[in-house]
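[audit] Reproducing an earlier prediction to check determinism. Same input, same settings, fresh worker. If the C-alpha cells differ from the archived copy the diff job will pick it up downstream; this log only records the rerun itself.
[audit] input (202 residues):
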Amino acid sequence: MYSSHISLFCPLDLHKFSYNFATMSGLVQAMSLLKVTFEKYAGKDGNKQSLTKAELSDLLRAELPQAGTSSKAEVDKFFSMLDNDKDGVVDFKEYVTFVAALTAFFIKLCQQCFLLPATMSGVVQAMTLLKATFDEYAGKDGDEDTMTKAELSEMLRNELPEGGPKAEVDDFFSMLDNDKDGVVDFKEFVSFVTALAVMCCS
C-alpha cells in the first residue's frame, strides 16, 4: 500500500546502521533494532530470511518474557496466526507487522519500559523508541495523541535522511491518514513504520 510513497523517504540501508546507534535518529534506531533482533534468531535452522516455529519461540521467550510461559499449543496457534502466507515460516514483514500491532496495543507498557532501558530486550527497546519518537513530534499543535501534517513533516525531516518535498509530504500524509480525520494517530504512524522497515530491509 505504501510502497510507491515510501521509496521517497527510504534511501537508507539498515544493515549499515546496525551497530552505530549514536549516529541514528530514534526512528532509524527502532527499525534497526527490529532488524538486528530478527537476524539474531532467524537462520539457526537454515534460512536467515525467516523464523521457524522453534526460532520464534526462542525470540518470544527471550525478548518478551511474559510470553515465555505460553504452552506449546498457544505458541502453535500464535505462529499459525502470524504466518500470513501459510508457508510454515515467519518472514521479516510478518515479524515487523506483529511488533507493530504489539506496540499499538501496549502503548502504556512502552511508556513504563522507557524508564528501564538497561532491562529492555531489543524488541521492547524498538517499541519504546517508536512511542518516544511519536511523542516527540505529536501534540505541538494541540492533541498529543495525534500528528498534524506539519508535525509529520518535521518528523520526516529530522528522523529520515530524505524528508521529501512538500507536495510529496502532502500526498503521503493523505495516504497515511487512513480514517481521513486530518491527523495521524499512533496506530497509523506504526503502520507507516512497519511498511518503511520492510521496504528498507528488502
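[audit] rerun output stored. Observation attached for the diff report: The chain has a mean pLDDT of 76.
[audit] end
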